[in-house]
Design goal:
The protein has about 325 residues and is of the alpha+beta class. The protein has one domain: 2-Layer Sandwich (BirA Bifunctional Protein, domain 2), CATH 3.30.930. The protein contains nine helices and 13 strands. The strands form three sheets. It has an eight-stranded mixed beta sheet with strand order 1-5-6-13-12-11-8-7, with helices on both faces. A three-stranded antiparallel beta sheet has the order 2-4-3, with no helix packed on it. Strands 9-10 form a two-stranded antiparallel sheet.
Length: about 325
Amino acid sequence: MNLPELYEVQVFSKFLFYVRKYFIEKDFIEVESPLLNSFATNEPYIDSFQVVSDKPLYLITSPEFNLKTILKRYKKNVFQIAHVFRKGDQSKHHRQEFLMLEWYHLNYHEFDLIEEVKDLMQYLSNHINEFNKINQFNIFSIEELFYHYLKKDFSLSSLIEIIKENQLIEKKKIDTLNNTSYDDLFFIVFLTLIEPKLDTENPLFLYGYPVELRAYSKINQSKNVSRRFEMYWKKLEIANGYYEIIEKEEQLLQFKKEFQRRQELNKCIHPISKDFIESFPLPDCSGVSVGLERLFMAFRNLNDISQISFSERFE
């Protein structure tokens, strides 16, 4: 087990106290939904841990499905601070077990939720003396970034042009671009040519992602973009928020797309939550997940998650 310095552990304890205090003061209900379930996420690029048992059981990668089920039952704003578990690479910024804050706010859209994330961060900055003060928040659409850095939009044809012009893949693979998934093309461009140039010294919100990357967010039909956002700070991706899908058929369609993509990636398809599906239609809401260790690291100018996390790094 990793043992951080006592001082950082004490500050982190204060941090968790004020996170809870913020939501309780806003009349949210804190819930403790299960960490072990008979269902799992089928998001293409997130992999669950399966527990050895006489039947398939999975550790959560997010409390999302349970929280939305609870939200429908009680029709009250809810939040949870949960240990979540995701297979994958480990680094100075990531462990396979980490703390996630997730909350859902009724009758909020994505820009309302952005303001709430900002309000939480200012609240923490004001109440915790050991934290950096926030000078400003920045917000840009993905469309703005593409035109600013690349002078192109993020259509499929534009992504292929950008990759060719900037020689982002080997010449022998150029002919495969037309058969490459949109999300792979987008991330080749975004992670190589845009993300490294972003100024994240101050918290940065990005919104208006392509429809193909909508996940469980609604669509802005007039602009043909997804109603979701991400927040970066100190070069860390920290928050991911959606104006949530609330109709059952639309959610099932997204599940179907996830199944197809996982098959293309040669990944298994997991069972879905029956309680979650039966909870539709959901009430109008937006939800966001925040990596708490990463947010703390940004507030404290730390560069390694081992400075605050007890989680073991498995080699």
